[in-house]
Structures are given as C-alpha cells and as structure tokens.
Amino acid sequence: TLVSRRGGWRLARSFASPGPVQFDGPLADEISVCLRLERGEEVPEAAVAPLAAARLAAPPSLPSLLEGDAALAVVAGAVPHAAADELFVAQQLPTTAGQPRLEIVSGRLAFRHATPLPLLGEAPLVIGVVFCGRQCPGAHNVAVGLTHFLQRRGGEGAKLLGFLDGTRGLFGGRAVELGADEVAPYLNGGGMDLLGRSADVIRTAEHYELAEATCRRCGLSGLVLVGGPVSNSDTALLAEHFKQRGVPTRVIGVPATIDGDLYCNSIEASIGFDTATRVYASLVGNLATDAASARKHWYFIRMMGRTPSHLTLGCANLTQPNIALVGEELEARRMTLCDIVGELADAVEARASEGKHFGVVLIPEGLIEYVPQVNALLSEISAALKYRQRMGDTSTDRYKVYTAILPLLTPPSAALLASLPPYIRRQLMLERQASDDKAQLSQIETERLLAELVRVELRKRRAAATATAEWAAPDARFAPVCFYLGYQARSSMPSTFDANLGYALGHAAGALVGAGATAYMASAHCLTSPPSEWRLCGVPLFSLMSADRRAGVAVAVIRPAQVSLASPTFRRWSAVRERLVMADLYCNPGPMQLSGPLAAGPSPGRVQAEHAERGRDVAEAQAICREVSAACWPGCSGDVLRTALASLRALREHLDVLEERDQAAMTNPVGSSHRRITQVTHEQMLRRDN
Fold it and tell me: CB–CB of 303/342 below 8 Å?
C-alpha cells in the first residue's frame, strides 16, 4: 500500500495530521491504519485524518452576545495608561494614544453612551487578514471567525481577503478572497498553512508605503494582524501611520503566540499558549515516566518560549519534574552560570546518594539571557556583528567571524566566549533575528551546554574527593540525554479552549473594525467561565507599550511579559519544588483531549490559577454599581445621596492609589534588567542605550 501511494505524495500536499490519541468519543476505539492493513482490510487513502474530520464537524462555541442576529454595541470605558514610558510612547503615537478601552456588548444591554455597530455607513465591510509571527495553534479559527462575522454582520457584499505569505503578501498585494468554502477545511486546524507566513516585520518607511498602497487599492475597511508582541507592536505603529496619513483602513491586532508572553490583566490569554502547554506537558510526562522506568538517564529538556519562562513553568506545574529552571528567578537571584551548574550537580549527587541515577530537568529556551555574564556577552556580540556589517565585512566563515569578533569584546566577555564549547560559540554568533534583533535562542543548545558542564563539575568533585580523601563523593553515574521541545507544538491541532478563543477573537476583531476602532487589540475575558459567558473587549495598543530599542533606534514596543515571581503560578511551583528534587512524583497528563469532560476549559495552569473567579467578581461589581445607580435617582433622600457620594469618593481615591502603585511598579527599576523602565523622551532613550 505504501509503495503504491507514496509516488503521489512527493509533490502533492497530501500530509494529514492524526492529532493526539483520544480516550473519549467515537475515535477512542478506532483501530490504527497499520493494524487494519496487516489484517488485510481495504483502507482508502484519506485527505483528512479521522480526528481532523471530526474537528471539522465540531463548530467552536461563541459568547452568547454573538449568538443570533441581535444588534451589537461598543461601550467605551476608562482611558488606560501606557505600560511604561508614557511620555515617550505618546510622542511615538500622537494620534492613537489616549484611546479608551472598549467592550463589545449586546445592543439591548448597552449603556446610554454605547455606539451601535457598524459605523462605516452603508458600504459593506472589506477586511484583510495577515498571519504574522510564528506558527500558532488556533490562528486558522481567527480567519474562520472573521469570515462568519462578515457573513452575518458585515453587510451585503462584505468579504475577507487573506494575504499570502504574511507581510510579504501584504506589501506585494497578493491576496485571496476567503469565503465559507475556502476556510471550512481549516476549521479547528493547526498551523498557518491557509495563508502561510514569512519573516514578518513592518519597520521601514517603504513597508508602510507598500502596506498603505495595498489597503487603498483593495479598499479595505480594516486590516487584522495575527501574532505576538513583536507583530502587535508593528500593528500599533502601522495604525498610527495610517491615521496620520488619513488612510481609512482600521488596524486591529489579535494576540496569538505559543510563548504566553502577550499577557497582562488586559490580555488574559493569547491563542496557542494553552495548546502548547498541553502538548509539551504530554511529552515531558512521557519522558519523566521513561526516566523513572529505565532509572539510568538524566533528561535535560529545553522548552520553546523565547526569553520568558511561561511554558517551562506551566509544564513544570503539570508534570512535576525534579528541577525546572525559571529564568526570571535566576536573574532575581543574580545567579551565574557556575551557580546554576553547581545547583544541578548538587541535585545529581543528592539523588545518587539514594541510588537514583536519573531525573528530569526543564530548561527555558531563553535561560542564557537571564545569566548576567552571558546576557552581556550576547549584547556585545550583537554590537560587534553590526560593526562588521558597517565595515563591509560579509564573511560567513565561522572561524573568521569568531576571530574578527573576539578583539571587539570586553576582556570578561572575550574570556567567557573563549571558554565555551565550539558549538555554543557558533550558535551565539548566528545572525540576529529580524523580528527583535536578538540571538536565535531556538538554535542555542543550552540543554547540551548545561549537561556537559554538570558532567565536568561532577568529575572535578570526584577528583577532589579522591585526592584529599576528606570525603567520599557519591558515584553519580551521570548519563544525560538532551531534548529540545519546540516545533512539535507550534502547528499542533488546537485545544478546544484555543479553538474557541481564536474563533471568538476573530468575531471581536471584525466587530472592532465595524465600530471604526483602530490601534486596538481584540481580547477576551472571564476565560475560566464557559465560552457563552466570555466578555469581548478592545484593548488600546498604546496601553500595552513602552520604550525599547530596535537596531539602535528608540521605538515604542510591546515588551514580552515576564514570569511574575509573585504570581500564583510561580508560588505553586515554589511550594513543591524542594520536595520534588528527591521525590519521584512525576505526573503524566497524557495526550490532549478534544472531546469529553477533559476537553473543556483552559488547562489547569496560569489562566485557572490567576483568573479563576474574575467572571463572577466582575459581574458582582457591575451589579452593585447598577444597584447604587438605581438608588441614587433624582428623588432619593439626601441621606442616601450623601452616603453614596462619600462612599464612592473614598472608593475612587482608593482606586487612584492602586493605579498609581501599579504604574510606579512598571516604571521604576525593580531589579530585573528586562523590566528596567523609566519615563524617558526620545533623546533620553538614545543617550541611555548608547
């Protein structure tokens, strides 16, 4: 059968994703294709795997306000501050700064000052969508949600245009119309192969002009960009450019990144993080079970996630490995590479003393950026590479690049670089990423480096113990095996939660375009409640931004959110990790389930821990406000009015104090080089970075 079919697979797009093993529903008892063929059964070639076909027939759930044909309205809320560096961000975004938060509500529930949808006259909505950033489970459902929104609410002749190959297609005007038939095969599917993506950045004046020309030529009412912090930073700057130039296209961002670093109170979850956490946790659980079975290997597992450690922490809470390194904590403790290796070696020796020559270590992809000496080295290498480019040195020979860079480094950094294994040196000197001008963290084998350094440290200790005979080092029998969990989850079939979230945010983005909003990010709230109770909002991109540097130029960006050491998620890990070093309490969460009781809701991680009661609390607060408003009617008694005023004035003062405290925490140095932020102007930013 394979021989007869594989000839046609070489050039055709015939791959199929079988998805995770299911324990509930009609597919739970299905016999594998291989076994059916061995039994002599006829198995017709299928373009879609059975689970994918079942997911195509399972429409995502929607918030109740989007069900039916009831009119929608937008309610304007408070005007938020910028995340930090507000003066600088306001200078960068003079026309889009200071916009209020928006909430999309049912027309019959709208408050007095609600704005009905749509607001673009009688013309039908024409929206373009671009997949930016890296692949993300659930991104396809954004396009499906936009398509269905336009069919129902976009007006006669409304249409969705999908730009091929990311921003490259936007600049070149290469778009295809996406109707219900075109998006239907991609419902609840992983990846971004409906449209594809490229090295997605919108940076130069030429990029802005090409995007503007495409939007004018296509007559776009709105442009929706789907991506992470970098892509949504570009979204804010593009929206500002359009508004200054009088381009009628509204620009909306949708949060979609597996890294979980697009996160704050305004953004409870980004599309893809839930799926990635579940997929990686399943793989880590399998490896932990294998380690406990063989009892002879230490598994060093590096996890995708770029600089922040959200994925590592989420998987650690789900699987309970022996050790999980959290970069933000290591930075707060000012730990050097030697300190980290020393603690790992201590754990290996302690377990060996009890006859346990195995264990599991989780390592975040961005760990080395949190080690002060290595972070300084990375910065100096970036500066040296740029200097070589300015001098016209285009050599790609690795040894020549190394010898050219070494004299440009400070003595400590040069010594550190020379001390590292050759393969790490080569990886540190790779070309910087176009998106954020940083090292290619996914290509740096941190897990291999740590495993080798631990091996060297253990040999040193054993040699010292033998030479002095003052103590007996345990026979560690250290046998490390290294893994990188990265690309396995980026295009996975999305979890039920991410499928619902992507679909809802597609509708929200369409609604924001219909309301005439620009420079907003679509967001969903109360996500631990059933999807019918989710609340859809528009968050001003201005409120998520602060100052940073791109290629030596000061610019307003959305900084990736770091793991908070005060968060319930980290506190939960901190409470158990000392016990886990010696105990074997591995948890194997198993494959992600897409039906049955285990499929509903987000994974039991960050969203559950930090937003569990948000929906209920918000509803109660709003109900109390309505009761107070009803009690303070024009004919109420003076005592009622005075009591209400005194209480509300005190409440307002308390809220102002809390807001000022939160703002100060974000704008003052807090000990983390990733969050050292002050109120700066453009000139001060340049002086600071140079």
Answer: no
Q: Name the pairing type of β-strands 175-178 and 159-163.
A: antiparallel
Dist CA 511 CA 126 (whole Å): 12
Nearest CA-CA partner of 320 in 344, 295, 291: 291
Q: What is the mean pLDDT of residues 364-384?
A: 84
Residue 273 CB-density burial (10 A; 0-12 exposed, 13-18 middle, 19+ buried): buried
Q: 673 pLDDT band (50/70/90 cuts)?
A: very low
Torsion of CA 144, 148, 149, 152, to 10 degrees: 180
Residue-wise pLDDT for 138-183, tens only, equals 999 999 999 999 999 888 899 999 999 999 999 999 999 999 999 9
Return the biggest CA–CA distance within the chain.
Answer: 92
Question: Which distant-in-sequence residues (6+ apart) come within 8 Å of 655 by Cβ?
Answer: none
Q: Tell me the two tokens of residue 590.
A: 């198993």
User: SS3 for 157?
Assistant: coil
Mean pLDDT for the chain overall: 85
Distance CA 506, CA 226 (A): 10
Cα angle, residue 446 at apex, residues 481 and 196 outer, rounded to 5°:
100
Q: What is the mean pLDDT of residues 378-396?
A: 76
**CA 11 from centroid of its chain's CA atoms:** 33
pLDDT of residue 473: 58
Counting every residue written for the chain, the total comes to 690
User: Whole-angstrom Cα distance, residue 344 to residue 325?
Assistant: 10
β-strands 126-131, 222-227 pairing: parallel
CA dist list (Å): 438 to 83, 179, 309, 375, 595 = 22, 38, 17, 11, 40
The residue from 85, 165, 234, 259 that is catalytic is: 259
Segments of 150-213 assigned E as strands: 159-163, 175-178
Give yes or no: 259 in active site.
yes
Helix (H, G, I), strand (E, B) or coil at 427: helix
* Range 408-432 average pLDDT: 81
Which two structure tokens, joined as six digits, stand for 363?
């390592």
pLDDT of residue 577: 93
- What's the token pair of residue 630? 């009803």
Burial 491-522 (b: 16+ CB within 10 A, else e): bbbbbbbbbbbbbbbbbbbbbbbbbbbbbbbb
Alpha carbon distance 333, 426 (integer Å): 28
- pLDDT for the residue numbered 664: 61
**Residue bearing the bigger pLDDT, 583 or 201:** 583
